[in-house]
Amino acid sequence: MDPIALTLIELGAVVFCLGLLARLAGRIGMSPIPFYLVGGLFFGAGGIVKLEGMHEFAHLSSEIGVILLLLMLGLEYTAAELVTGLRRSWQAGVLDLVLNFLPGAALAVLLGWGLVGAMVMGGVTYISSSGIAAKVITDLGRIGNRETPVVLSILVFEDLAMAVYLPVLTATLAGVSFVTGLQTVGISLAVVTVVLLVALRHGHHVSKAVHSENSEVFLLNLLGAALLVAGLAAAMQVSAAVGAFMLGIAISGATAHSATRILEPLRDLFAAIFFVVFGLNTDPATVPPVLGWALLLALVTAATKLLTGIWAAKRAGIGVPGRFRAGAALIARGEFSIVIAGLAVASGVVPQELAALATAYVLIMAITGPLAAKFVEPVVAIMRRPASPPAVRTAGGI
Amino acid sequence: MNVDETDLPGLGRRKDFMTASGRRIGVVEYREGQTELIVSTWDDPDTCQASIPLTAEEAAALGNLLGGQRLAMQLSEEHREIPGIVTRQFSIAVDSPFVNQPMGKACIRTRSGVSIVAIMREGEVVPSPGPDLVLHPGDLLVAVGTQEGLDTAASILRNG
Fold first, then answer.
1. How far apart are CA A133 and CA A156, in angstroms?
2. Would you call B16 and A144 a contact, using CB atoms and an 8 Å cutoff?
3. Vertex A103: Cα angle to A97 and A107 (nearest 5)
4. What tens digit of pLDDT does each residue of A168-181 get?
């Protein structure tokens, strides 16, 4: 068959299947990410169907997917929100980092994946899915709740932590020497600071440079700028994802809102391909052996996120049910855990089992996270009034 | 009366207060401009029993129902307690540079620290006008701030 025809057919079939999966996920009110991952597992290496024709396109698309995911993460919060978030909730943010980074890192060391593996798995278990958390909070009508700002500011802190973590991770994965690594990290820290300062003072200039009333021009400007910045960042060994993320932070105000609107469909498409490609590159046969570890890790890190939320909400003067709601909203891990694992796998310095563990872990967390957020409320309510029903019954008996 | 303003990073801003009956009531203003009325449950003031999306007209109508006309007088009454805080009214002249412009263009809060808490227009009160609200000649702006701030705001509205 003509190779182009083969590519088109494969790509069409995959995207169409993703559409079906996303619809199924929407029907039962779940994040589509675990469905995409499972879809990828089925299609890919060692799966049921082998897809060879679309390999090149899929590879490039998944890179673009990561760039768009990080660009939109940067667009989500303004520089001012990041700075106030950092100032107001750094204690909760640090607790979050320590409690949730350590379990992943510890397991990686235990499994003999070394410091690089620990660095990667720590990131995978640390970062909550801001996408899933925001959707859960909106869907459950909790935006007006008092604990919601607590949850959001932890997500903001994680967002900033990513800006520091990703360059460190890229340097570690590239296996550069300690001095070069420090240099790379130093450069990216300086860039992060400069971008934040520029975004605070002169964000409107950056916004003006890409903004246009014409949505077509705006889209092309945005995408062009994102790919350009990402490419340059990659050339400087800072990681393409961080470049896109920084651009997202620098774009602010009304431009950021319209940019989010205009990029959403593109992000959805390319991110979906990214998740599938991640699944494609994971051999399904490697998943069952690590399933036990994934379950254990899920259990531990669900508890640590819950603790983080409870502690942070308690400090903010929230009542007991609200503390649990805050903790449960943070449990879900998703897109960024896969981004981190994807970077690691692409570098080829971590074992194949890491991809399998990350896949299984995110599958569990992306499914149970929203469920935990939903059911934590009735569970806490039941736990908090155990004594009253028997009392009523006695009164009725007399 | 203390209205709490809380940032919701990535979403917008929540403004609410505790009623004497122990319920929390207020609004969530989204970045995209929508408004939601929120009311807490009776047993847990942290959570919301209802979040009701309101259009701009509905929000204005509800505001009017809840006591619009007395707003300005009440404001001056309340701020009498706080030293340094004054309520003043500005009318928009026909030749003001902000006629038929969204109020946000004047950047009054940023430049003078003064809050425009309401606008009186054709006998109606628009409470908490957003930056998108277009100013008309003859509008009466109810402003709260310090003496100096209010002087600055007056000059901004007159001269741009």
1. 12
2. yes
3. 140
4. 888 888 777 777 77
